[in-house]
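Let's practice the habit of predicting before peeking. Look at the sequence and jot down your guess about where helices and strands might fall. Then scroll down.
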Amino acid sequence: MNSTNIKTFYQGQVIFREEQESGIAYMIRKGSVNIYKVMNNKKVILDHLGEGEIFGEMGVINPGRRTANAEAAEFCELLVLTNQVLYGLLKQCPKTIQFLTKALIRRLKRTTAMIPEGTHQSTFLSICRLLEMAWSVHSLLPPEERKKDPNHDLGLNYFQFVRKVKSIILVAEMEIDAALERLAKLKVVEINSLRSAKITFPERFIKIMDPATFAEVCLNLYKELQRSDFTLRVEMEHLDVYDFAEAVGTTPQLLYQKMAAGEIPEGLFFFHRSRGLDWAAKQDKDFFRSVARKRKKPEELRDIVDVLYVDNATLKTAFERLGYYKLGVLVALAPTDEVRERILGNLARKIAQVVEGEARSKEAVDDAEAADVVEELFETVREIKGANAGKGGGTK
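Done guessing? Here is the structure:
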């Protein structure tokens, strides 16, 4: 590394001040740095950074005036990151992109926590600032990295952006959606959808129409919203399925299965009225009259309800190998009548009666034993499918 790109600072020495013009960032090679603001004549430390961390990054991503001060907490050596140097790092090491993104996120999160409530930016402006930073990082990707993402030119992945914002500023998803929809209606951003046969819902992508004026437009829009008493505040009394799954230590997929099985009280389900009805109005007239069951590959079979994805001929062959006791375990585990009937319907009548008796005799099934039996069933299914494929037969 060229020595002209290295700067040294002694303890207490100011690296840059708030409101100074910015055009470069720094990476700490040695020592540590404090990021701070002066509020009511008091020095408030926003962040303490160590070796390997980047700061002042907005000076490269979106040149303008510094929003905070930086000083050496001890003797330190800093690598100066100009636009050209940072681009070189991104080109050589894709991990730098992830590191820079994490640095931006951590900085906003810590700043939010440290600044007194009276000086905290509105939620709307926080969402806009995060969108601006995310778009800047997205735009900095080198050409070879962009090629690895076939959807890069469509913009930021909407779902991933919303999830990241929720984790940073702790707001409800409806609040983020409302802010983005407001920006889209005013043509400040563009939201596009991409449909695929592989997924149930279309992927959505966000594009900032004019990055150079985005921040100023958002600020002016916020002032207009304040004058019209518009508010995006939504109390976080509700969780989406992903947050609820994380809170109870499970997966969204398992929650969906339990909802279908009636194991979760229906009083816990809520739909956003206007968005839900608008979406429903766009579906075919027969959409809500039946369920389109997706196919699963043999290697994707995991839960007892997955017997619904296996053809009858394969199930009959697999059940013949299991024996009455294990079939009784499977019936006892069946969470719905549909699953239960799928199992019993692929057994001879007399055998089904015996298996039902086995199932009724089991007051409770040991979790470990249940997991073993289900795994054995699907291993058997995979063996049968593999043998059929080897003979030229297909898989469902």
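How did you do? The first helix runs from residue 58 to 61.
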